[in-house]
Amino acid sequence: MAGGRTGHGAVWCGVPAAAALLAANIVVGRKLSRSRWLRERETAAILALQAHRTRGRDRLATLVSTASDVPSSVVHGLIAAVLLQRRTQQWRTAAAPARALVLETAIYLGAGALVNRDRPDVPRLDREQPTSSFPSGHQGATVALMVMYLGLARRIRRPWLRAVVVAACLGYPSVLAWARVYTGMHHPSDVVAGTVNGLVAGLLTWPDLGTVPNSDQLRMG
User: Fold this and answer.
1) Which of 23, 71, 116, 142 has the fewest Cβ atoms nearer than 10 Å?
2) Model's pTM, two decimal places?
3) Alpha-carbon gap, residue 166 to 163, rounded angstroms
4) What is the mean pLDDT of the chain?
């Protein structure tokens, strides 16, 4: 019973922080959307990036963007949840990635609907999307998951494997941020906002990963 109350408390304690982050997204997003100066500078930065296009870079950017769209992130989160449940037999730990995604997605959808920022007026290499440019949902969902995976990486016994996982969790969001700007789908500030949203969503859910006893550490490596 106590564990159940603790789990519910952990879920609800993140609500005020998430609401505050949503409000901040709306305020900041609207200010960014109204700034002609920023729009011109960010458009110039995107065009400068695209000026160095190559077939290889186009393929990499498109591949990373497609692999990190919101439906794909949901699938990744569900797979992680199933694997964690089998390894730990603890529902709270297993559900942590899914909760991080739900939290980030709620902020992304709420802010997007109320900010409704236009996408950059540049050539786009990815398919058109009906959602707001601000904040980046791709970036937010990916960062939220990477924070969860970093938490799990602490339990990997082999140092070299742990280092590889940590490097991947830190490096992949950086490549994705580049890809979303390179493909013309987001302004740089959209990606920054998505990164912050993902970090907060992941950190709010991070304590749930600490419920596995040391004797039940993940048998990875």
Assistant:
1) 71
2) 0.85
3) 5
4) 85
